[in-house]
Amino acid sequence: MDSVLSYHERSKHHLDRYAPGPGGLDWASQPDPFRCYPGAPELDLPLLTDELPVCWDQLFASDGAPQQVRNADSLACLLQLSLGLSAWKSYGESRWALRCNPSSGNLHPTEGYLICPDLPGLPAGVHHYRPDRHCLEHRTAAAFAWSGGVLLALTGIHWREAWKYGMRAFRYCQHDCGHALAALSYAAAALGWPTRLLSEWGDAEIAALAGVDRAGDFPAAEPEVPEALVWIGPGRAPAAAEVLARLAGAKWAGRAKPLSGQHRDWPEIPAVAEAARKPHGTAMAAETTAPLPDLAPASRQPVSQLIRARRSAQAFDGVTALGAQAFHRMLDALLPRPGQAPWSLLNAAPCVHPVLFVHRVAGLEPGIYCLPRCPQAAAELRRAMRPDWLWAQVPGCPDHLPLYLLAPMEVKPFAATVSCHQAIAGDSAFALAMLARFDDIAQAPWLYRRRFWEAGMLGQVLYLEAAASLVQGTGIGCYFDDAVHRALGLDTGRFQDIYHFTVGRAVVDARLRHEPAYAHLEADGGRRNVRLRSSADAIRC
Ligand SMILES: Cc1cc2nc3c(=O)[nH]c(=O)nc-3n(C[C@H](O)[C@H](O)[C@H](O)COP(=O)(O)O)c2cc1C
Questions:
Q1: Distance 176 CA to ligand 1 centre (A)
Q2: Measuring from atom 30 of ligand 1, which residue has the nearest CA?
Q3: Is residue 348 classed as helix, strand or coil in its secondary structure?
Q4: Interior/surface letters 370-400, b for 16+ CB within 10 angstroms, e for the rest
Protein backbone atom coordinates (compact mmCIF):
# COMPACT_ATOMS: atom_id res chain seq x y z
CA MET A 1 0.00 0.00 0.00
CA ASP A 2 2.30 2.76 -1.21
CA SER A 3 0.04 5.75 -1.06
CA VAL A 4 1.52 9.15 -0.39
CA LEU A 5 -0.08 9.20 3.04
CA SER A 6 1.56 5.96 4.08
CA TYR A 7 4.90 7.27 2.74
CA HIS A 8 4.40 10.42 4.78
CA GLU A 9 3.77 8.37 7.90
CA ARG A 10 6.80 6.14 7.35
CA SER A 11 9.12 9.06 6.60
CA LYS A 12 8.40 10.82 9.91
CA HIS A 13 11.17 11.44 12.41
CA HIS A 14 10.18 10.58 15.99
CA LEU A 15 11.70 11.64 19.29
CA ASP A 16 12.89 8.06 19.85
CA ARG A 17 13.78 7.07 16.26
CA TYR A 18 14.63 8.74 12.97
CA ALA A 19 13.09 7.82 9.59
CA PRO A 20 15.07 5.09 7.80
CA GLY A 21 18.29 6.58 6.44
CA PRO A 22 21.69 5.40 5.24
CA GLY A 23 23.10 5.52 8.79
CA GLY A 24 26.22 7.40 7.72
CA LEU A 25 27.60 9.09 4.63
CA ASP A 26 29.24 6.98 1.96
CA TRP A 27 31.62 9.58 0.54
CA ALA A 28 32.64 7.26 -2.31
CA SER A 29 29.13 7.53 -3.78
CA GLN A 30 28.57 11.24 -3.09
CA PRO A 31 26.52 12.55 -6.03
CA ASP A 32 27.90 15.25 -8.30
CA PRO A 33 25.83 18.39 -7.59
CA PHE A 34 25.99 19.43 -11.26
CA ARG A 35 24.30 17.40 -14.00
CA CYS A 36 25.61 17.76 -17.53
CA TYR A 37 24.87 16.33 -20.95
CA PRO A 38 28.20 15.66 -22.71
CA GLY A 39 27.63 15.87 -26.46
CA ALA A 40 25.10 18.73 -26.29
CA PRO A 41 26.29 22.07 -27.74
CA GLU A 42 27.06 24.58 -24.98
CA LEU A 43 26.13 28.22 -25.05
CA ASP A 44 28.04 30.37 -22.54
CA LEU A 45 25.85 32.96 -20.85
CA PRO A 46 26.99 36.44 -19.88
CA LEU A 47 27.43 37.16 -16.19
CA LEU A 48 25.82 39.87 -14.19
CA THR A 49 28.84 41.70 -12.88
CA ASP A 50 26.95 44.88 -12.08
CA GLU A 51 23.77 45.21 -10.04
CA LEU A 52 20.41 45.34 -11.76
CA PRO A 53 18.96 48.84 -11.40
CA VAL A 54 16.12 47.56 -9.19
CA CYS A 55 15.87 47.56 -5.42
CA TRP A 56 14.04 45.06 -3.20
CA ASP A 57 11.12 47.37 -2.34
CA GLN A 58 10.51 48.04 -6.01
CA LEU A 59 9.41 44.45 -6.54
CA PHE A 60 6.36 45.14 -4.40
CA ALA A 61 5.48 48.62 -5.68
CA SER A 62 2.40 48.96 -7.91
CA ASP A 63 4.47 49.63 -11.06
CA GLY A 64 7.08 46.96 -10.22
CA ALA A 65 10.49 46.77 -11.90
CA PRO A 66 10.90 47.99 -15.50
CA GLN A 67 10.20 45.22 -17.99
CA GLN A 68 13.35 43.95 -19.74
CA VAL A 69 13.40 42.70 -23.31
CA ARG A 70 13.73 38.89 -23.53
CA ASN A 71 17.13 38.00 -24.97
CA ALA A 72 20.25 36.02 -24.00
CA ASP A 73 21.34 38.77 -21.57
CA SER A 74 18.11 39.06 -19.63
CA LEU A 75 17.54 35.29 -19.52
CA ALA A 76 21.13 34.82 -18.33
CA CYS A 77 20.27 37.21 -15.53
CA LEU A 78 17.07 35.30 -14.72
CA LEU A 79 18.98 32.02 -14.45
CA GLN A 80 21.88 33.46 -12.51
CA LEU A 81 19.61 35.08 -9.91
CA SER A 82 17.40 32.02 -9.45
CA LEU A 83 19.37 28.78 -9.99
CA GLY A 84 22.89 30.17 -10.38
CA LEU A 85 25.84 30.08 -8.00
CA SER A 86 26.04 32.76 -5.32
CA ALA A 87 29.47 31.97 -3.79
CA TRP A 88 31.96 29.25 -2.95
CA LYS A 89 32.79 28.36 0.64
CA SER A 90 35.77 26.39 1.84
CA TYR A 91 37.04 24.90 5.07
CA GLY A 92 40.33 23.04 5.15
CA GLU A 93 40.41 20.76 2.10
CA SER A 94 36.64 20.98 1.48
CA ARG A 95 35.19 23.46 -0.96
CA TRP A 96 31.55 23.74 -1.97
CA ALA A 97 29.36 26.01 -4.08
CA LEU A 98 26.29 27.85 -2.79
CA ARG A 99 23.41 28.86 -5.00
CA CYS A 100 20.72 31.52 -5.04
CA ASN A 101 18.21 28.74 -4.38
CA PRO A 102 18.96 26.97 -1.10
CA SER A 103 18.78 23.22 -0.73
CA SER A 104 18.55 20.75 2.12
CA GLY A 105 22.06 19.50 2.82
CA ASN A 106 23.21 21.72 -0.08
CA LEU A 107 22.59 18.67 -2.28
CA HIS A 108 20.54 20.42 -4.98
CA PRO A 109 18.18 17.84 -6.48
CA THR A 110 16.51 20.48 -8.68
CA GLU A 111 17.53 20.95 -12.33
CA GLY A 112 16.29 23.71 -14.65
CA TYR A 113 15.40 23.64 -18.36
CA LEU A 114 14.73 26.75 -20.40
CA ILE A 115 12.34 26.28 -23.32
CA CYS A 116 12.14 29.23 -25.65
CA PRO A 117 11.40 30.41 -29.18
CA ASP A 118 14.19 32.09 -31.18
CA LEU A 119 15.41 35.10 -29.19
CA PRO A 120 18.33 37.48 -29.78
CA GLY A 121 21.47 35.52 -28.87
CA LEU A 122 19.51 32.36 -28.02
CA PRO A 123 18.37 29.65 -30.45
CA ALA A 124 14.88 28.15 -30.10
CA GLY A 125 14.51 24.81 -28.35
CA VAL A 126 15.08 23.04 -25.05
CA HIS A 127 18.16 24.02 -23.03
CA HIS A 128 19.50 22.53 -19.81
CA TYR A 129 20.98 25.10 -17.41
CA ARG A 130 24.38 24.31 -15.86
CA PRO A 131 24.85 26.55 -12.81
CA ASP A 132 28.54 25.64 -12.38
CA ARG A 133 29.49 26.90 -15.84
CA HIS A 134 26.58 29.35 -16.18
CA CYS A 135 25.87 27.95 -19.60
CA LEU A 136 23.02 26.33 -21.48
CA GLU A 137 23.28 22.88 -23.01
CA HIS A 138 21.14 22.91 -26.15
CA ARG A 139 19.43 19.55 -25.95
CA THR A 140 17.20 20.05 -28.96
CA ALA A 141 16.23 22.69 -31.48
CA ALA A 142 12.49 23.15 -32.05
CA ALA A 143 10.48 25.64 -34.08
CA PHE A 144 8.55 27.06 -31.13
CA ALA A 145 6.43 29.88 -32.45
CA TRP A 146 4.93 31.59 -29.43
CA SER A 147 5.86 35.05 -28.18
CA GLY A 148 5.49 37.00 -24.92
CA GLY A 149 7.43 34.70 -22.60
CA VAL A 150 9.51 31.58 -22.02
CA LEU A 151 8.91 28.26 -20.29
CA LEU A 152 11.07 27.04 -17.44
CA ALA A 153 10.77 23.41 -16.37
CA LEU A 154 12.06 22.18 -13.01
CA THR A 155 12.94 18.52 -12.55
CA GLY A 156 14.27 16.56 -9.59
CA ILE A 157 16.98 13.94 -9.08
CA HIS A 158 15.85 12.09 -5.96
CA TRP A 159 19.14 10.22 -5.61
CA ARG A 160 20.98 13.41 -4.67
CA GLU A 161 18.92 13.77 -1.47
CA ALA A 162 18.46 10.03 -0.86
CA TRP A 163 22.24 9.60 -0.69
CA LYS A 164 22.22 11.53 2.60
CA TYR A 165 18.65 11.40 3.89
CA GLY A 166 17.30 8.01 2.78
CA MET A 167 13.56 7.58 2.81
CA ARG A 168 12.71 11.14 3.88
CA ALA A 169 14.51 12.52 0.80
CA PHE A 170 11.38 12.76 -1.34
CA ARG A 171 10.06 15.44 1.02
CA TYR A 172 13.27 17.47 0.73
CA CYS A 173 13.20 17.30 -3.07
CA GLN A 174 9.74 18.88 -2.94
CA HIS A 175 10.80 21.59 -0.45
CA ASP A 176 13.73 22.42 -2.69
CA CYS A 177 11.48 22.65 -5.72
CA GLY A 178 9.34 25.17 -3.81
CA HIS A 179 12.42 27.24 -2.93
CA ALA A 180 13.46 27.18 -6.60
CA LEU A 181 9.96 28.23 -7.73
CA ALA A 182 10.01 31.26 -5.44
CA ALA A 183 13.61 32.04 -6.46
CA LEU A 184 12.48 32.07 -10.11
CA SER A 185 9.51 34.26 -9.35
CA TYR A 186 11.63 36.88 -7.54
CA ALA A 187 14.33 36.87 -10.24
CA ALA A 188 11.68 37.29 -12.94
CA ALA A 189 10.04 40.12 -10.97
CA ALA A 190 13.42 41.90 -10.89
CA LEU A 191 13.32 41.80 -14.71
CA GLY A 192 9.72 43.07 -14.75
CA TRP A 193 8.22 39.70 -15.72
CA PRO A 194 5.29 37.89 -14.10
CA THR A 195 5.46 34.13 -13.45
CA ARG A 196 2.72 31.51 -13.42
CA LEU A 197 2.82 27.82 -12.57
CA LEU A 198 1.22 25.94 -15.47
CA SER A 199 -1.04 23.72 -13.38
CA GLU A 200 -2.83 22.17 -16.32
CA TRP A 201 0.29 20.35 -17.59
CA GLY A 202 0.65 16.74 -16.44
CA ASP A 203 3.96 15.26 -15.26
CA ALA A 204 4.30 13.07 -18.37
CA GLU A 205 4.04 16.19 -20.55
CA ILE A 206 6.64 18.10 -18.53
CA ALA A 207 8.96 15.07 -18.72
CA ALA A 208 8.56 14.93 -22.52
CA LEU A 209 9.21 18.66 -22.80
CA ALA A 210 12.38 18.58 -20.69
CA GLY A 211 13.52 15.33 -22.35
CA VAL A 212 13.93 13.55 -19.01
CA ASP A 213 11.67 10.67 -20.13
CA ARG A 214 14.19 9.71 -22.84
CA ALA A 215 15.55 6.54 -21.23
CA GLY A 216 18.16 6.20 -24.00
CA ASP A 217 19.71 9.52 -22.95
CA PHE A 218 20.08 8.33 -19.33
CA PRO A 219 21.69 4.90 -19.91
CA ALA A 220 23.71 4.85 -16.68
CA ALA A 221 22.53 8.13 -15.17
CA GLU A 222 20.21 8.50 -12.21
CA PRO A 223 16.59 9.07 -13.22
CA GLU A 224 15.33 12.64 -13.28
CA VAL A 225 11.63 13.26 -12.71
CA PRO A 226 9.42 16.14 -13.82
CA GLU A 227 8.34 18.64 -11.16
CA ALA A 228 6.98 22.02 -12.22
CA LEU A 229 6.53 24.09 -15.36
CA VAL A 230 6.51 27.88 -15.14
CA TRP A 231 5.50 30.45 -17.71
CA ILE A 232 7.63 33.57 -17.41
CA GLY A 233 6.48 36.69 -19.15
CA PRO A 234 3.47 38.91 -19.73
CA GLY A 235 2.00 36.97 -22.67
CA ARG A 236 -0.33 33.97 -22.77
CA ALA A 237 1.29 30.58 -22.28
CA PRO A 238 0.97 28.15 -25.20
CA ALA A 239 -1.04 24.95 -24.61
CA ALA A 240 0.75 21.66 -23.86
CA ALA A 241 -0.40 19.95 -27.07
CA GLU A 242 0.78 22.87 -29.21
CA VAL A 243 4.25 22.90 -27.60
CA LEU A 244 4.75 19.13 -27.64
CA ALA A 245 3.66 18.89 -31.29
CA ARG A 246 6.70 21.03 -32.18
CA LEU A 247 8.96 18.45 -30.55
CA ALA A 248 7.67 15.53 -32.62
CA GLY A 249 10.64 13.99 -34.45
CA ALA A 250 13.14 16.35 -32.76
CA LYS A 251 16.78 15.22 -32.59
CA TRP A 252 18.19 15.44 -29.06
CA ALA A 253 21.87 16.01 -28.33
CA GLY A 254 23.88 14.76 -25.36
CA ARG A 255 23.51 12.04 -22.77
CA ALA A 256 23.17 12.61 -19.03
CA LYS A 257 26.41 11.93 -17.16
CA PRO A 258 25.98 9.72 -14.06
CA LEU A 259 26.34 11.56 -10.76
CA SER A 260 27.64 8.64 -8.66
CA GLY A 261 29.51 5.43 -9.42
CA GLN A 262 27.29 3.39 -7.12
CA HIS A 263 23.85 3.79 -5.60
CA ARG A 264 21.77 2.51 -2.76
CA ASP A 265 18.10 1.96 -3.63
CA TRP A 266 15.30 3.46 -1.58
CA PRO A 267 12.28 1.74 -3.19
CA GLU A 268 9.83 3.89 -1.19
CA ILE A 269 10.94 6.93 -3.21
CA PRO A 270 10.04 5.82 -6.77
CA ALA A 271 6.86 4.35 -5.25
CA VAL A 272 5.74 7.62 -3.67
CA ALA A 273 6.83 9.54 -6.77
CA GLU A 274 4.59 7.29 -8.87
CA ALA A 275 1.68 7.64 -6.43
CA ALA A 276 2.04 11.46 -6.45
CA ARG A 277 2.26 11.88 -10.24
CA LYS A 278 0.11 14.67 -11.58
CA PRO A 279 -2.25 13.90 -14.46
CA HIS A 280 -3.00 16.42 -17.20
CA GLY A 281 -5.54 19.14 -16.66
CA THR A 282 -6.32 19.27 -12.97
CA ALA A 283 -6.86 22.94 -12.29
CA MET A 284 -6.04 24.56 -8.95
CA ALA A 285 -8.64 26.64 -7.09
CA ALA A 286 -7.89 30.31 -7.77
CA GLU A 287 -6.84 32.63 -5.00
CA THR A 288 -9.77 34.21 -3.17
CA THR A 289 -8.18 36.55 -0.62
CA ALA A 290 -9.49 40.09 -0.04
CA PRO A 291 -7.26 42.99 -1.19
CA LEU A 292 -4.54 43.86 1.31
CA PRO A 293 -2.71 47.14 1.92
CA ASP A 294 0.70 47.49 0.24
CA LEU A 295 3.67 45.94 2.01
CA ALA A 296 5.58 48.36 4.24
CA PRO A 297 9.05 49.25 2.87
CA ALA A 298 11.79 46.82 3.90
CA SER A 299 14.99 47.50 2.00
CA ARG A 300 16.55 49.70 -0.63
CA GLN A 301 19.30 47.17 -1.38
CA PRO A 302 19.63 46.21 -5.04
CA VAL A 303 17.59 43.04 -5.42
CA SER A 304 20.37 41.27 -7.33
CA GLN A 305 22.76 41.90 -4.43
CA LEU A 306 20.26 40.81 -1.81
CA ILE A 307 19.45 37.57 -3.65
CA ARG A 308 23.11 36.64 -4.07
CA ALA A 309 23.99 37.50 -0.48
CA ARG A 310 21.25 35.23 0.98
CA ARG A 311 22.79 32.60 3.25
CA SER A 312 21.52 30.11 5.82
CA ALA A 313 22.51 30.88 9.39
CA GLN A 314 24.38 28.02 11.03
CA ALA A 315 24.05 29.50 14.52
CA PHE A 316 22.22 32.43 16.13
CA ASP A 317 23.48 34.69 18.89
CA GLY A 318 20.66 33.82 21.29
CA VAL A 319 20.25 37.42 22.46
CA THR A 320 19.27 39.84 19.68
CA ALA A 321 15.59 40.74 19.50
CA LEU A 322 13.98 41.40 16.14
CA GLY A 323 12.14 44.73 15.80
CA ALA A 324 8.33 44.50 15.65
CA GLN A 325 8.23 46.35 12.33
CA ALA A 326 10.60 43.88 10.66
CA PHE A 327 8.68 40.96 12.16
CA HIS A 328 5.34 42.26 10.87
CA ARG A 329 6.79 42.90 7.42
CA MET A 330 8.17 39.33 7.19
CA LEU A 331 4.81 37.86 8.12
CA ASP A 332 2.96 40.24 5.80
CA ALA A 333 5.13 39.07 2.88
CA LEU A 334 3.77 35.55 3.47
CA LEU A 335 0.24 36.72 2.55
CA PRO A 336 -0.59 36.44 -1.16
CA ARG A 337 -1.19 39.69 -3.01
CA PRO A 338 -2.48 39.51 -6.58
CA GLY A 339 0.22 40.12 -9.17
CA GLN A 340 3.02 40.06 -6.61
CA ALA A 341 6.04 37.74 -6.49
CA PRO A 342 6.23 35.01 -5.52
CA TRP A 343 2.62 34.16 -4.66
CA SER A 344 1.19 35.18 -8.03
CA LEU A 345 3.12 32.19 -9.42
CA LEU A 346 0.83 29.80 -7.53
CA ASN A 347 -2.38 31.76 -8.02
CA ALA A 348 -4.13 29.41 -5.63
CA ALA A 349 -5.72 29.67 -2.20
CA PRO A 350 -3.04 29.30 0.51
CA CYS A 351 -2.94 25.79 2.03
CA VAL A 352 0.14 26.11 4.29
CA HIS A 353 -0.01 28.21 7.47
CA PRO A 354 2.72 29.07 10.00
CA VAL A 355 2.53 28.35 13.71
CA LEU A 356 5.20 30.57 15.23
CA PHE A 357 7.41 30.01 18.24
CA VAL A 358 8.29 33.56 19.24
CA HIS A 359 11.39 33.94 21.41
CA ARG A 360 12.74 37.47 20.94
CA VAL A 361 10.57 39.99 19.10
CA ALA A 362 10.44 43.54 20.52
CA GLY A 363 7.12 44.23 22.23
CA LEU A 364 5.77 40.72 21.70
CA GLU A 365 5.19 38.22 24.48
CA PRO A 366 7.16 35.00 23.91
CA GLY A 367 4.79 32.19 23.03
CA ILE A 368 2.99 30.24 20.35
CA TYR A 369 1.25 32.21 17.62
CA CYS A 370 -0.62 31.32 14.45
CA LEU A 371 -0.82 33.13 11.10
CA PRO A 372 -3.68 31.69 9.02
CA ARG A 373 -2.82 32.97 5.54
CA CYS A 374 -6.44 33.29 4.42
CA PRO A 375 -9.69 33.89 6.34
CA GLN A 376 -11.17 30.40 5.72
CA ALA A 377 -8.07 28.80 7.20
CA ALA A 378 -8.45 30.64 10.52
CA ALA A 379 -11.68 28.81 11.36
CA GLU A 380 -10.35 25.48 10.07
CA LEU A 381 -7.11 25.69 12.05
CA ARG A 382 -9.01 26.69 15.15
CA ARG A 383 -11.21 23.61 14.87
CA ALA A 384 -8.18 21.40 14.17
CA MET A 385 -6.14 22.45 17.23
CA ARG A 386 -6.42 22.30 21.03
CA PRO A 387 -9.71 23.85 22.15
CA ASP A 388 -8.01 25.79 24.95
CA TRP A 389 -5.73 27.88 22.69
CA LEU A 390 -6.47 31.60 23.16
CA TRP A 391 -6.71 32.83 19.53
CA ALA A 392 -6.23 36.34 20.95
CA GLN A 393 -5.62 39.46 18.83
CA VAL A 394 -2.03 40.70 19.11
CA PRO A 395 -1.71 44.31 20.34
CA GLY A 396 0.30 46.55 17.97
CA CYS A 397 -0.11 44.19 15.04
CA PRO A 398 -1.28 45.82 11.76
CA ASP A 399 -5.08 45.39 11.40
CA HIS A 400 -4.90 43.33 8.24
CA LEU A 401 -2.29 40.86 9.59
CA PRO A 402 -4.11 37.75 10.88
CA LEU A 403 -1.67 37.00 13.71
CA TYR A 404 -3.15 35.29 16.78
CA LEU A 405 -1.62 34.48 20.13
CA LEU A 406 -2.38 30.85 21.03
CA ALA A 407 -0.43 30.61 24.28
CA PRO A 408 2.05 32.94 26.01
CA MET A 409 4.99 30.82 27.18
CA GLU A 410 8.70 30.18 26.93
CA VAL A 411 9.13 28.00 23.81
CA LYS A 412 12.88 28.10 23.14
CA PRO A 413 13.67 24.58 24.44
CA PHE A 414 10.50 23.21 22.85
CA ALA A 415 11.28 24.71 19.41
CA ALA A 416 14.82 23.33 19.49
CA THR A 417 13.75 19.89 20.72
CA VAL A 418 11.05 19.36 18.09
CA SER A 419 13.47 20.60 15.38
CA CYS A 420 15.66 17.50 15.89
CA HIS A 421 17.39 19.14 18.88
CA GLN A 422 18.86 21.88 16.64
CA ALA A 423 19.85 24.94 18.70
CA ILE A 424 19.09 27.24 15.72
CA ALA A 425 15.36 26.87 16.43
CA GLY A 426 15.70 28.19 20.01
CA ASP A 427 18.55 30.72 19.72
CA SER A 428 16.78 32.71 16.99
CA ALA A 429 14.25 35.55 17.29
CA PHE A 430 11.50 33.20 16.19
CA ALA A 431 11.01 29.79 14.63
CA LEU A 432 7.98 28.31 12.96
CA ALA A 433 6.28 25.10 11.95
CA MET A 434 4.30 25.09 8.68
CA LEU A 435 0.93 23.37 8.90
CA ALA A 436 -0.32 22.07 5.57
CA ARG A 437 -3.85 21.11 4.69
CA PHE A 438 -3.94 17.30 4.44
CA ASP A 439 -7.65 16.43 4.13
CA ASP A 440 -7.70 16.53 0.31
CA ILE A 441 -4.51 14.57 -0.43
CA ALA A 442 -6.06 11.09 -0.43
CA GLN A 443 -8.38 12.19 -3.27
CA ALA A 444 -5.69 14.04 -5.26
CA PRO A 445 -2.30 12.62 -4.20
CA TRP A 446 -0.30 15.01 -6.44
CA LEU A 447 -1.37 17.80 -4.05
CA TYR A 448 1.08 16.29 -1.57
CA ARG A 449 3.95 17.65 -3.67
CA ARG A 450 2.24 21.03 -4.05
CA ARG A 451 1.97 21.41 -0.29
CA PHE A 452 5.74 20.96 0.08
CA TRP A 453 6.35 23.39 -2.80
CA GLU A 454 4.19 25.96 -1.03
CA ALA A 455 6.12 25.39 2.21
CA GLY A 456 9.41 25.79 0.33
CA MET A 457 8.11 29.04 -1.13
CA LEU A 458 7.26 30.30 2.36
CA GLY A 459 10.82 29.42 3.31
CA GLN A 460 12.26 31.35 0.36
CA VAL A 461 10.16 34.42 1.22
CA LEU A 462 11.47 34.28 4.79
CA TYR A 463 15.08 33.83 3.64
CA LEU A 464 14.94 36.93 1.44
CA GLU A 465 12.82 39.00 3.82
CA ALA A 466 15.28 38.16 6.59
CA ALA A 467 18.13 39.34 4.35
CA ALA A 468 16.17 42.53 3.60
CA SER A 469 15.89 43.16 7.36
CA LEU A 470 19.62 42.44 7.87
CA VAL A 471 19.05 39.21 9.77
CA GLN A 472 19.23 35.61 8.53
CA GLY A 473 17.04 32.56 8.21
CA THR A 474 17.52 28.80 7.94
CA GLY A 475 15.20 26.14 6.58
CA ILE A 476 14.74 23.16 8.91
CA GLY A 477 13.73 19.94 7.23
CA CYS A 478 14.63 17.83 10.27
CA TYR A 479 11.86 17.93 12.89
CA PHE A 480 9.77 15.48 14.91
CA ASP A 481 6.45 15.55 13.10
CA ASP A 482 4.16 13.96 15.68
CA ALA A 483 5.78 15.65 18.65
CA VAL A 484 4.67 18.97 17.14
CA HIS A 485 1.23 17.59 16.33
CA ARG A 486 0.76 16.35 19.90
CA ALA A 487 1.83 19.68 21.42
CA LEU A 488 -0.58 21.61 19.20
CA GLY A 489 -3.36 19.09 19.75
CA LEU A 490 -3.56 18.94 15.96
CA ASP A 491 -6.08 16.80 14.08
CA THR A 492 -3.62 15.22 11.64
CA GLY A 493 -6.39 14.20 9.26
CA ARG A 494 -6.86 17.92 8.55
CA PHE A 495 -3.37 19.43 8.87
CA GLN A 496 0.20 18.24 9.29
CA ASP A 497 3.50 19.98 9.98
CA ILE A 498 5.62 19.79 6.81
CA TYR A 499 8.56 22.21 7.31
CA HIS A 500 10.25 24.37 9.94
CA PHE A 501 12.11 27.65 9.60
CA THR A 502 14.01 29.96 11.94
CA VAL A 503 15.04 33.64 11.77
CA GLY A 504 17.42 35.72 13.89
CA ARG A 505 20.81 37.37 14.22
CA ALA A 506 23.39 34.91 12.87
CA VAL A 507 26.79 34.20 14.35
CA VAL A 508 29.30 34.09 11.53
CA ASP A 509 31.72 31.15 11.42
CA ALA A 510 35.05 32.91 10.88
CA ARG A 511 36.77 29.61 9.97
CA LEU A 512 34.94 29.46 6.62
CA ARG A 513 36.53 31.13 3.60
CA HIS A 514 34.38 32.74 0.89
CA GLU A 515 35.13 33.11 -2.81
CA PRO A 516 33.09 34.79 -5.53
CA ALA A 517 30.61 32.63 -7.44
CA TYR A 518 32.13 32.73 -10.89
CA ALA A 519 35.79 33.63 -10.41
CA HIS A 520 36.63 30.32 -12.16
CA LEU A 521 34.87 31.50 -15.35
CA GLU A 522 36.44 34.91 -15.28
CA ALA A 523 39.84 33.24 -14.83
CA ASP A 524 38.98 30.98 -17.77
CA GLY A 525 39.21 33.92 -20.17
CA GLY A 526 36.32 36.05 -19.04
CA ARG A 527 32.67 36.41 -19.89
CA ARG A 528 30.89 39.27 -21.56
CA ASN A 529 28.91 41.23 -18.96
CA VAL A 530 25.16 41.40 -19.05
CA ARG A 531 23.97 44.64 -20.59
CA LEU A 532 20.46 45.35 -19.43
CA ARG A 533 20.57 49.12 -19.24
CA SER A 534 22.63 52.07 -20.32
CA SER A 535 25.38 53.07 -17.91
CA ALA A 536 23.48 56.33 -17.24
CA ASP A 537 20.67 54.43 -15.51
CA ALA A 538 20.66 54.65 -11.75
CA ILE A 539 19.01 52.50 -9.16
CA ARG A 540 15.66 54.14 -8.57
CA CYS A 541 15.43 53.71 -4.82
C1 LIG B 1 14.36 22.24 2.62
C2 LIG B 1 15.55 22.64 3.44
C3 LIG B 1 15.79 22.01 4.64
C4 LIG B 1 16.89 22.39 5.42
N5 LIG B 1 17.08 21.80 6.64
C6 LIG B 1 18.08 22.21 7.45
C7 LIG B 1 18.21 21.71 8.78
O8 LIG B 1 17.40 20.87 9.24
N9 LIG B 1 19.23 22.20 9.53
C10 LIG B 1 20.13 23.13 9.06
O11 LIG B 1 21.04 23.55 9.81
N12 LIG B 1 20.02 23.63 7.80
C13 LIG B 1 19.02 23.20 7.00
N14 LIG B 1 18.86 23.74 5.74
C15 LIG B 1 19.83 24.74 5.24
C16 LIG B 1 20.76 24.12 4.17
O17 LIG B 1 21.73 23.34 4.80
C18 LIG B 1 21.38 25.24 3.33
O19 LIG B 1 20.36 25.83 2.56
C20 LIG B 1 22.47 24.72 2.41
O21 LIG B 1 23.56 24.25 3.12
C22 LIG B 1 22.93 25.79 1.44
O23 LIG B 1 23.40 26.92 2.13
P24 LIG B 1 22.79 28.37 1.85
O25 LIG B 1 21.33 28.33 2.23
O26 LIG B 1 23.58 29.31 2.72
O27 LIG B 1 22.94 28.66 0.38
C28 LIG B 1 17.77 23.39 4.97
C29 LIG B 1 17.52 24.02 3.74
C30 LIG B 1 16.43 23.66 3.00
C31 LIG B 1 16.15 24.38 1.70
A1: 10
A2: 104
A3: coil
A4: bbbbbeebbebbbebbeeebeeeebeebeee
Q: How many whole angstroms from 266 Cα to the centroid of ligand 1?
A: 22
* Ligand 1 center to 511 CA (angstroms): 19
Alpha helical stretches, state H, 48-191: 72-82, 158-165, 169-190
Q: How far is the CA of 426 from the centre of ligand 1 (A)?
A: 16
> CATH number of the domain at 41-286+515-523, please?
3.40.109.10
Polymer length in residues for the chain: 541
Ligand 1 contacts CB of residue 110 (under 6 A): no
Q: How far apart are CA 466 and CA 540, in angstroms?
A: 22
174 pocket-lining for ligand 1 (C-beta < 6 Å): no
Q: What is the pLDDT of residues 60-101, one digit of tens each?
A: 999 999 999 999 999 999 999 999 999 999 999 999 999 999
Q: What would the mean pLDDT of 442-455 be, rounded to a whole number?
A: 97
pLDDT at 533 over 60: no
The residues that bridge with 431 in the sheet, in sequence order, are 357, 502
Ligand 1 pocket mutation pick from 81, 89, 101, 103 by most atoms within 8 angstroms of CB: 103
Provide the CATH topology of domain 311-504: NADH Oxidase (3.40.109)
CATH 3.40.109.10 range(s) for the chain read 41-286+515-523, 311-504
Atom of ligand 1 nearest to the CA of 98: 27
